Amino acid sequence: MTMTRPIVALALGTALGATTPGSAPRSYVEARTATSDRPFSDAVRVGDTLYLSGKIGVDADGKVPADAASEARNVLSDVQKTLLGAGMTMDDLVFVQVFCSDVEHYRSFNEVYRTYFTKELPARAFIGSGKLLFGARFEVQGIAAKR
Question: In a designed cystine with 92, which of 65, 66, 98, 144 is the match (CB 3.0 to 4.6 A)?
Fold first, then answer.
């Protein structure tokens, strides 16, 4: 009997006008291929949903800023730039995942994070991850859906 539940859910979703990920058109923000220097695109849009790759908050020289607040601003500004490139804003984010090398930076990150939104905040996970690439404190990824 449990085998029919997924089929019923799929049929119901189709009847209500839902699309499957394979049926919606895709577009890319800063698209890259397997032979690119970085083996991922900045974001992939499927229908009205944008999937953002993880970003870290290095400065223009590729260095991690001395203080956590500056790094948080850098990474969130990069997220914002990617969203703008897809015709979206920070308020279109529905889920954000933050990896943090040391959860002691939670408060500093949140003080900056709040300033990037004007509407309801997205769902979020803040995960103590241990060491991140290039000695970064934060890596942020997210999912946005056009309002």
Answer: 144
